[in-house]
Amino acid sequence: MYEVVLVDDDVIVIEFLKKLIPWQDYGYQVAASFQDSNEALVFMKSNPYDVLITDIGMPKLNGIELIEQLKKSNINSYNVILSCHDEFTFAQQAIKLEAYDYILKESMEESNIIELLERLKIKLDQELYVNDQQAKVTKFLERSTRNDDVLKAQKYVQTHLGEKISLTEVAAHLHLNSSYFSRMYKKETGEGFVEYVTRVKMEKAIELLDLSSNTVEQIAYELGFESKSYFLKTFKRFYGVSPKSYKYKDKVSGKDAQLIKPEKQTGY
After folding, report:
1. pLDDT at 265 (0 to 100)
2. How many angstroms separate the CA atoms of 60 and 72, rounded?
3. Which terminus of the chain is more exposed, N or C, with fewer CB under 10 A?
4. Which of 131, 152, 186 is the last residue of a domain?
5. Which residues neighbour 222 within 8 Å (Cβ) at sequence distance 6 or greater?
6. At 84, is the secondary structure helix, strand, or coil?
């Protein structure tokens, strides 16, 4: 339902509009009605609405001034003017303020208002559709950008395995705030960035233990660990066995040692 605000100092006009127009049959509902235009302005500045139907000739704040105040507050809505014949000059000013339409009170009938509402609803529906499509495109582009950043971060890790890799360093490489990058990476992959770095390095450690004759100490430095002891601690926490036990599993037990990943991995 599109929200409508009614403003007219004549209570008879307000009651006519509220009770004789079947608003909901045409996709609208009256959100509020006012005889005091200043009260209406306060309401519209703090409550969302779609359509304003207002009289022009009102005390305190006339319809033209009301629309001007709304525009100054960057409030955009479709404005419909109610006007008497001797206020036609005001009505012309309202059109210059991009009012959607105006209705002469002398000829105001239910059929005229319903015809206007039907025309306006087509415009509102089209605008809503366009906004929805733009939101979908924006969301898609944002998601694509985030996916691209994730891939760039992972590529950076893969090509810098021999170095100490920090979240701050990679975020700076991507020109992103580190806190934002951390949240975004976790949201997009389901895995923390530090956890990802640890996992990749531990998988590479297994590969090196299997395929190279390097010592554990050499592998530790090859993967960017500053000390052998920290590598040993990380490996044991990640797999549940020491690198030495894994490397010489065949000699020790004659079969593969079981590798157990802990529930929580520590980063590097």
Report:
1. 46
2. 18
3. N
4. 131
5. 162, 208, 214
6. coil
DSSP E strands in 60-117: the ranges are 78-83, 101-104
What does DSSP say about strands 2-7 and 101-104: parallel, antiparallel, or unpaired?
Answer: unpaired
Distance CA 246, CA 210 (A): 9
Taking the C-alpha atoms of residue 109 and residue 51, their distance in angstroms, rounded to an integer, is 19
CA–chain centroid gap for 4, Å, is: 27
Residue 217 · residue 187 · CB < 8 Å = no
Q: How many CB atoms lie within 10 A of CB 116?
A: 17
Length reported for the chain: 268
Q: Find residue 83's DSSP bridge partners.
A: 104
* Residue 164 belongs to a domain: yes
199-236 pLDDT per residue, tens: 999 999 999 999 988 999 999 999 999 999 999 999 99
What are 260's two structure tokens?
């157990």
| The model's pTM | 0.67
